[in-house]
Write a structure and sequence with these properties.
This protein is an alpha/beta fold. It contains 6 helices and 8 strands.
């Protein structure tokens, strides 16, 4: 059993107001309710890391205190997987601040983005250098690439170009113990 008050104290010390949302904050509700309002739950806190090291710090802190983690991309899931199970001691780690396009490389036909990058942004960045990113979904204006990769999203162009996994050359991953594994590859 985890000590929730001690965990909240540790969160407050480790994260600023941009990265941490507590239940008494008006910004809290959208992160614990899926977009159709079919699934809703409670959470200890919402963490909105800005980069991979902040994700690693969040995972390490949750692990040290025995707190469950619910990763959240665009919260566009139709199965409730992006919100916590009610009654569980959990933290939502939202990727909404990790929306950076790191590099567009038209020579190698690659784009490197953060997990919270919105799919439509990736499509626009590719188009800006006369390239085409072939993943297309109804939620492309709000879904995030991390969720697309995690669920191996298909979309309307799957038969021609394959699922999301067919578009991925490498990943940068935060492991369950909070370590960063760099498997990024652009070739």
């Amino acid at each position: 059993m985890s000590d929730v008050p001690a965990f909240r104290t540790a969160l407050t010390a480790a994260f600023d107001d941009q990265s941490l949302i507590l239940p008494d904050d008006q910004r809290f509700a959208p992160y614990i309710t899926e977009w159709r309002s079919k699934y809703s739950a409670s959470a200890i806190a919402i963490l909105r890391p800005a980069d991979t090291p902040e994700v690693a710090r969040a995972v390490q802190l949750c692990q040290a205190h025995g707190i469950n983690i619910v990763p959240q991309g665009g919260n566009t899931s139709l199965v409730g997987g992006s919100v916590p199970v009610d009654g569980e001691h959990a933290v939502v780690i939202s990727l909404d601040r990790m929306a950076r396009v790191r590099e567009v490389d038209p020579v190698n036909n690659t784009i490197t983005v953060d997990a919270g990058c919105i799919l439509a942004t990736i499509q626009q960045e590719a188009e800006a250098v006369d390239r085409f990113f072939p993943l297309s979904l109804g939620s492309e204006g709000s879904c995030r690439i991390g969720g697309n990769i995690a669920t191996n999203a298909g979309g309307i162009l799957t038969l021609r170009y394959g699922n999301t996994r067919d578009q991925v050359l490498g990943l940068e991953v935060v492991t369950a113990d909070g370590q960063i594994w760099d498997g990024l590859n652009s070739q």
